[in-house]
Amino acid sequence: MGRLLESFLTFARGERPGGLWTLLAPLGGIASMGTWCRNFCYDHGLFAQWEMPLPVISVGNLTLGGTNKTPFVAAITETLLAAELAPGIVSRGYGGSARGVVLVQGGKGERSEVGDEPLLLSKMLPTVPVAVATDKIRGVTALRERGCRIVVADDAFQHRRMGRDADIVLIDATCPFGNGRHFPAGILREHLQALERASLVVITKADQISQEILEPLEEGLEKVVPRKRLFRSSIVLKEWFRFDEGEWRRSSEPPCRRRAFAFSAIGSPRSFIHVLEELGIKLVGTCSFRDHHHYTAEDLAAVEARTGERGAEILICTEKDTYNLPAGYVPSLPLWYPRVGTVIENPLRFWQALKEILRPKIIVASNGYGEDAIGALLAARLRERFPGAAVSAFALVGHGAAYLKQDIPVCSPPVETPSGGIVKYSWREFARDLRGGLLTHIGRQLRRWGHLRGRIRSVLCVGDVYLLLQVLAGQGQVPLLLATAKSVHLGGHWRIERFLLRYRARRVWTRDEATLEQLLRSRVAATYGGNPIMDLVEENILGEQNGTRFFPKAKDDGVSAAKPHLLEGASQWILLLPGSRLRAYEDVALLLATAECLGERCVAKRDTAVPRFLLVVAPTLESPRLVAEATRRGWAERRIFRRGRNVLVLEKEKSWGRLSVELSDESVAKVASGARLVIGLGGTANQICAGLGVPVVSILEKGKLVQKKLLRDAEVLVPPSPEDLSEAAERILEDATLHAAMSDAGRRAMGRPGALGDVETYAAECLGWALRHDVYKELCAFLAKEELK
Fold this sequence. Notes:
By secondary structure, this protein is an alpha/beta fold. It folds into four domains: 232 residues, P-loop containing nucleotide triphosphate hydrolases (Rossmann fold, 3-Layer(aba) Sandwich), CATH 3.40.50; 113 residues, 3-Layer(aba) Sandwich (Rossmann fold), CATH 3.40.50; 193 residues, Rossmann fold (3-Layer(aba) Sandwich); 203 residues, Glycogen Phosphorylase B (Rossmann fold, 3-Layer(aba) Sandwich). The strands form three sheets. Strands 1, 2, 3, 4, 5, 6, 7, 8, 9, 10, 11, 12 and 13 form a 13-stranded mixed sheet that branches. α7 links the parallel β7 and β8. The two termini are 48 Å apart.
């Protein structure tokens, strides 16, 4: 090694003061700032990170070379081979000229094309394909096409664009962080704080330092990395090889009794010398070159000249060096190399930890109560298809009640605003939300996303571009989007939204085909698999076809025959939907008053039976609070037994008899089938009913005017008064032609179900979820057997 290079390395490694080398400190500071900016952009979605179609284990470091990466990659891959998981390796191929992707296997390849380390790995693991690619994403894709089921990515910790399932970071115990400065003023690639995104941290060469040095190093790392994610490894000799008659042959006898001269071109030559000394080799001299150095005949002549000066009997190099020797080189002395490997301390604990990291983890995020219902159904379907996966939810509004009802864990902080969400149609309501702490809520959500960064594999968004932006800003991954909120019938996506969807959404599912055409024209990766809202009612549609309904027949009204009333014999059920936001506690009074008015209208027409009313309580609402609002307006509470359970009924005595309104906490999707009419103040709930062919009556307000652009003739809007609502309802109930036209219009407007099944299939096949799930289950079974040995 040249004196200048040796002087710089001793400074960069912190072995002695740098003198003039300290002038590089400003450049190191600029590099540090540049690395911070780059990581910030990846952490917050400004730069895109793309999910791979099969599980990826990254092995990397914080410093420039010398951390024992290659043997560690080989050790990880050997265990995956033993578990019969068909691993592959992807490597940049430093020092090679290859462009595109070159596959190497069995050590066969040109060093000038693919570099030394891929050849070394492929020779050590002859059955494992090694993809050499400057773009590791393309390398992973090539390995998938080759039949690999899991990939080990060599030196990929800084390759942020490629998504990975596990990030293993190696720390060289003999030189952890050098002088603490960034290259070119030191050997750091990133600051120590970058270890926060590491899945596991392994201190390599732990056998080469004393416990007095090792323990403080671990204590320092524990400030960034939890103890349970911190491990040690050591270097061990596997076997010796000797160059004999133009070939490398295994040797059963180590060259311990001969005077040796060692040369190397690796990242940590001192570690190599330490290994030789531990093996009992009698070193009379050493010579080192820069990492990956391609030897010339002149280099080797100089080495051999020094061996003569020192009286050496043999030459020793590293296994990697054998790929950098010139073609046809014949050494003047016997040439040897040791094949070394890595041994992880407490390997079972390491693999159990890695197994849990490789467990597929997915989050379904949603930003509205209707979207929560769709997200909960999607999460439940994913959990059923992938029972070994960890499926959780992130609800931007409320407490995630729809998810909790499905036993889906909710990892988002609870959010309650005066409007019950983020209002898009009223500046006044938006101002109320701001005063109510909206910005504080958003900040808490972003911090929670930050805690999840690197701990989840996939994010599926159900909602709009705002949700997509929050996911990107919070944890950086490019998610999938089930776009439930936007349609060309509502004006479509804005140009800036289409730009974001094109570059920051892995795939977008639209709610109708017209919206799909708009996005495709903007080159968004979009598809239409059906209206996701209609997936909520798919079972009801099947139930209708099979002749089953939620509602009981008229004779089973649950009321004692000793107390006849006007509902006796009625066959028409009307749904009352107060919605899911906090304003529902106020709106319930309007709905109950509408029921009274409609009852009186029916009584006035002696040949018309009073319909039955069912008030559907959304999972975000509290029934006792609704009942309290009703009792303040003269309604009484009573319990009846129906469908195998106690049912809450609100009753009010009228001059013509007793009016009853039954309460149900079932989903709108379940109870809407068989209803004759809906008087609804909800959003998604109204759309569900329209899609089932149930005409909708609602109130004139800005949000509902927007919704009517979707539902069109399936919905009637009137002023928010009991008289207007009951009059509109009566007109629809009496006019069979109008009822049929509204029913048909609703089904046409909402379209068919199928979007969630399409998302599920895409996640399984294109995102590699089926493969990840199978690999995880097989690895669990393998480790369980190993534990019994």
